[in-house]
Amino acid sequence: MAKTNQKCVRLSDKVARYIEGYRGENFSQKLENYVLDTEERREQMVLDWERLNAEILDKRRELEKIRTKVRRAGDVDLRFSQLVSSLLELMDA
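Request: output the structure for the sequence above.
Response:
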C-alpha cells in the first residue's frame, strides 16, 4: 500500500501506549494496523454488541420472572406460617 499521507499528531500517553503495544515494526505501521484492524472488524463488533445486548435483555427478563416466583413463594410461606401458628394456638387451647 502506497504511503502518500504524512501527518503529525499529538496523542495522550494512554493512546500512545495502546499503539506501541500493537503489532508492527514501527509506530506508523502499528498505528495503521490498529486502525485497519478496528475498521475492518467494526461491522462484526457491532453485530456482536447487538447480540450480546439482546442476550442480556433476555437474561434480565428471565431473572425478573425468577424474582417474581421467589416473591410469590415467600408470600405463600408467610401465609402458611400464619396458618401453622393459628393451628398450633388452637391445638394448645
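The mean pLDDT is 91.
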